[in-house]
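Feature request disguised as a bug report, sorry. It would help if multi-protein outputs had a clear separator. Right now it looks like this:
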Amino acid sequence: MEPTSSATRVAAHSLLTLLAEGGSRHATLSRLHQQALQVTGGLSSILFEQHPASGLLQATSGSGVAELPTEAWRPRGDEAALIGESFGSRRAVAVTGLALKMPLLHERLGADRAVLLPLLTDTQRVGLLVIGIPAGALLDVAELERSDVPAAFLLALELARLRQREEFEHDVRGLLDAFSVRLWSSLDLPGALEPLCAAATKLFAADRTTVWIYERDSRSLVPLASSAPGHAHSTASVRADDPLAPAATALRTLRAGLASRPADATSLVTVPLRGCRRALGTLVFEGVRIEAGDDIALLNRADELGRQLSSAVETMQLLDVVLKSRRELEQLFASIAHLIVVIDDEGRIVRANPSFADAVGIAADALKLQPLREHVTAELTSWLDTLAYPLSSPALHEFSNPGFIGHYVVTVTDIAGSDGRHAGRVIVARDMLPVMALRERDAMRDRLVQSEKLAALGHFVSGIAHELNNPLQSVMGHLELLRTTGAFPEAIRHEIRTIYREADRAARIVRSLLVFAGSGRVQRRKSGLNGILQKVLALRKASCRSRHIEVVRKYDLHLPQVQADPLLLHQVFLNILMNAEQAIAATGKPGRIEIGTGSGESGWLVATVRDTGAGISDDTLPRIFEPFYTTRDVGQGTGLGLSLAYGIVQDHGGRISAGNHPDGGAVFTVELPIA
């Protein structure tokens, strides 16, 4: 049958009506094929849509054919030339001798003649409509071109694409909604990504979908989730700068990318996942089948999915950091040995650590919202009430028993709310008994080390003193004999007296060394410590007045007596007092010496001498009782005063120590057993 112009107009009207009615893609294209055959008088028809990236032609619909070609068609030889002529001229081309020129079409159409009708827009090739013409039928190609058949097919394909895009976007929104619900209900990012990958694989018509996450510490991409079971766990990570890894190269891009695989007409789609200012990872679709002309739309949809997924991943990562920090703070708060309690502005307990809960004997959860005053002493509560708001700095106070057994230093710090207003306070109670015990242990260890060192030095000095004493006594004896008999010339009398005086001085030094070593003779009797100190002060009164030194006495008038040699103890305190005077004089300013006595440990008396000088340096303190050690200039001291005092006190069964006062100056402490 030969189509007429009136038939063409009728067919065109039917085509427009059909498109206006809408319907599914398959139904619409089937009716369009029927209308095209009616207009042309054709026997059969096939619609090939062209892949935008590979250029392959894929049969998507037809009429009057037993089956459509399933493989993508890449025209070659005469086929390519004829199709290129049709697309190039943008006109329909009549072809005869299909069996030789286009065997694929000849087999499917069941005809030896065909019309190639190009479907083109202004910017791209959409497809090719091939109509098989029966033998003997007349065909006006120009009439076919003037008909609305090409426009109807283009419009139908575009409408179908728009409907598909709308459905796709709806499916993407549903996919993301399900992902969000799953993610925020479980806070398990890998667990929420696995179903998303599976759904995205179906949505994008892909073979596999994988989410790669960028790890900054190792600068690598790690597969976190995949639509293929076990794929993420079995795939190795890749370096972020690997130029051959698609996930790595996509990390440095801003938009979704497309890589064709001509061998199987599928594509690899990579989508960068980016946060506000940093790369998060990559979403990779493998084996994506893109319909003709839909590549740009698909990449846009992939970008939208990537943006939504990036927002969720970044939020989850930030939340994970916050939760990790909170867990660390919780563990830190629970592990602190000090007693910590947080109260609100009404004095109710907001939080307490396990140490505080153990101290009051109530579980931490049970303490919440209870008034703090019910668990501490009235003394601590009264002190807290006196603290003004706000505190300029943390407040500290010592309590012997603030509600918990022990000696505590309590620190209070204000808490400000998000609006800057006072929201409560943090109270920290530090048990000082372990600290005091530790300090006492360290002090005892230092005293033991010092005593051992000085004892060893004492043995050494004692040996030297005895060795020096014998020849000195011989020298002095012979000098005394010469002086008595006068058996030397008058001219050297002065020199003999000088020799005797220096030999006597050397003998006194030796005797001092023997006292330090504990080898001197001590004549003990009951003596009053306050009386000995008074005699020393009377002796140094004039010197203190001339140096503008104030002497403050703090005696215990009911002090028991000591069993001691008063002359030797007099020497001890005289040496200590003279050192104090010289320390104050070195400052060039007036000063004060405080002398006190009292009872110490059971069976001991304590005397202290404190000055307001510069104190004792850390280097000097360990060696201060060593013989011949002095910080004064040469000729201004022998370094035997304090070593002599140490030996005398040791010989009395007592203890002597030196240190620095917290308010400045040195403190010497002498401890002696009660008689």
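(second protein starts here, but nothing in the output says so)
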Amino acid sequence: MKVLLTGAFGNVGISTLDELLRQGHTVRCFDLRTAVNERTARRYAGRIEVVWGDLRNPADVAAAVAGVEVVLHVAFIIPKMSHTGIESELRPDWAAAVNVGGTRHLIQAMQAQPIPPKLIFTSSLHVYGRTQHLPPPRTADEPVHPIEHYARHKLQCEEMIRTSGLTWAILRLAATLPIALKLDPGMFDVPLNNRMEYVHTKDVGLALANAVSSDAIWGKTLLIGGGPRCQYTYGEIMARIMAALGLDMLPAEAFATTPFATDWLDTAESQRLLRYQTRTLDDYLADMTRLMGLRLPFMRLFKPLIRRSLLAHSPHWTRHTARQRKEGWENQTALVTGASSGIGAAAARQLARLGVRVLLVARRGERLELLADEIRRDGGSAHAITADLANEAERARVLEQAHALAGGVDILVNSAGFGWYGYGSEMPWEVARAMIQTNMTALAHMTLLVLRDMKARGRGHIVNISSIAGSLPEQGTALYSATKAFVDNFTTALHRELRGTAIHVSLIRPGPVQTEFFSRAADQPGGFRVPGERFAITPERVAARVVAVLRRPRRVVHIPGWWRIAPWIEPALGWLIDRLGPALLRRQRRGETLAS
């Protein structure tokens, strides 16, 4: 049978591909063309057909679907450590374009075929939400209560598939741990007493491959898990993994206490139909130790260092140790603008973990409420203030609400802003005006409003998020670079005015950051995607430096540190940028035109 496998070179994708080939199917693989995926594809040279493309591009999807009999749709942006390095929860709009939009394109391409292929969709047990208060196991027909963007995307896709008119089957997967030596910070998000059903990635591949040839699965929603012998608490799974690696179990304080969206499943029907439950957690541990090879003795030798490194990635351990240090954060209030995503959201989370009361400000009220709920569930204090900071009256209202809610602001993090990429002569004035009002006017006004209050109280700290673009006026970002240069100079001057007082003003100047900045720039009228996303750092890294500068005030912080050279690049290499810049801008425009 001719099968299309999306997300073919990911965790579940590889296991499914191996089993499909073993069973003699003809496989067409669809995935993003990255260096890692190309290396993986070369291992299968001569045995598979590869179509490189993007689910967001209908033409790519149509080319992949043409002539196949069954589509196995595995590709999805996941909550933690996706193959792109970007989490669905950090960039939900972008993830929805891939997850929901990509599935829509897939369905449309299948419907357009002379003989529409059958569709098997991999969903997730995350759709049930938090169920630890309910008696196990979960069943396929019980109500769903998604609590994250990822699960909501899965349910949107399920609904589209059920109403598509195609022949379909939906398989909701249990916890499928990758056999890889990667630290996933999400490992700390599950309480140790949380029920979790494990399923080996190769058993998932077997279930999907068997589903291709089954006549009994169509029109069904099935739960795919390891079965009763793979039902544990998360603490039991973690303890066994750590022991297999020769490490001691991590302290309970390193793990979340809020129930996580995993549970035990009723897999009787899926096992009867697909006969896939062949492996247990012991097989996974054996696979892990084989993968470690000669590195295993060294892990055991350096286990104190490894333990320290693991704990450094746990926000719960960070919060626990911060409480122990009793640094007095609990009595402070932080107002964070642009808090609905990116650096603002990450800074709000990290400040809340230290005990700071956070006031979240942005236009997207629904996003703010979700973040406020998340922070409160995690033991912090947060309030959402929906406002368009481009409006002067709204800015004044924000300060009034801040006084009503908290009595004043001790910390202001000005993170709101957006970019645009393209020829300055083609930039619509309404976009330019909005950028000036958001990136410059709003930041200056919020700073001055809060600063007067801080001077009256004799303390406070303002942190303005700028960019190295303020020192590098590059092609395509003329106005954005100018707004950041304003932020640089405005902040520096205020810092010098207030030097020697208990009021601090600091400037954060990151390079590219993994936020909605890139996609939002392309969404603006007349703009296209900003280059350089592959070199971007995480918002959490920037947020960590925000916290660091609040602990130890400094005038300016560059992230990464080597960007300290940014102010000297223009004087030294401006002549080179003058020559290369136009070519790079033309190249980016051509790429955007071809993609559209």
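Even a blank line would do. Unrelated, but nice: Residues 327-595 form a domain with the Rossmann fold fold (CATH 3.40.50.720).
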